[in-house]
User: Fold this.
Amino acid sequence: MHGTPSGTHAAAAAGGSRAERLIAGCEGVDAVVILNDSGPFLDSTFWYLTEQASGSFEGSAAVVTADGGLHVLTGSLEAETARTGQGEVHVHGTRAERDAVFKDLLDGARRIGVNFHGITYASVQYLRRVLGDVELVDVGKGISATVSIKDDKELASIRRACAISSRVAAEIPDMLREGMTEKEAATFIDGRQRELGGEGNSFDTIAAFGENASMPHHSPGDRRLREGDVALFDFGTKYERYCSDLTRTVFFGEPDDELRRAYEVVMRAQEAGFAEYRDGAPAAAADRAARDIIDGSEFAGRFIHTFGHGIGMDVHQDISVYHGSEQTLRSGNVVSAEPGIYLPGKGGIRIEDTCLVTADGAERLTGFPRGLTVVRP
Assistant:
């Protein structure tokens, strides 16, 4: 991974609109174009810039000009919605009208910034055809660094999403019953998040019982809960498009000694990593601190993923918190803290919180007691 561009944190700290901060973070370009396609090829940067809470905006685009101006190109289907957000709205009825708006807005621009991670090859070819002799420059790193520092409005939405998920986590012990399936548990979690105001899942909920908990991304199945099982739940919801991410592991009946020891190690590892979260700290430090705890125990080598990742409109975004990261944490970053130990054929332990990096430390935005929880059958 690469470090945060030097201008980006300064631009965010100085304030200004999101479009102004983004163009300041994408150095060396005359404009930035965010072009939505369809289906999975929708770039969350579009909603970051426009601050839209609704609409699909397939085939729409956002253009940020060198002066920090924001222009939204869309068809009549989304025109009314578009006007409720940020930016000057340009409504087109035909492809030719859309092409003309692009040409006008980008007249004289020679280096156009594009998020290569959020655009299809067909869209790249479209821009080249419409704009002619221009250079398309990948500004994905500048975009990632900019959106990784959350403003107050974003943090309010993330806090709301985290509060919803935390309340559902607190209900898990009372929800569990012998014989229920993983699918039934996941359905309960999903439904309760919706009932409490969530606007869809951050990702597919993970509910893993017994030996299935050794697979970090297990998909819920028909495995039934039995006394003595470990039960791992990884889930999150969205509020105004912003995500929460939370994992808790509980025991249905008394755990055996090995799983109990594993839990205690994971809890200490999360505390050690969390203690490294602060403005200006190397992102790698948190992973290393947690990994040292686990690898110094009998469970060496059983922590098989990174300690954390950025969270925003996408549940996985910059910053990446792993032992080889060259990135630096900044106040306003929202990152997970999620060490784990996985024992194939037996089960796994993971404890995860969504955390806000601050000037002198960090704040957990999700909450549910992290101590070992035993649910009596």
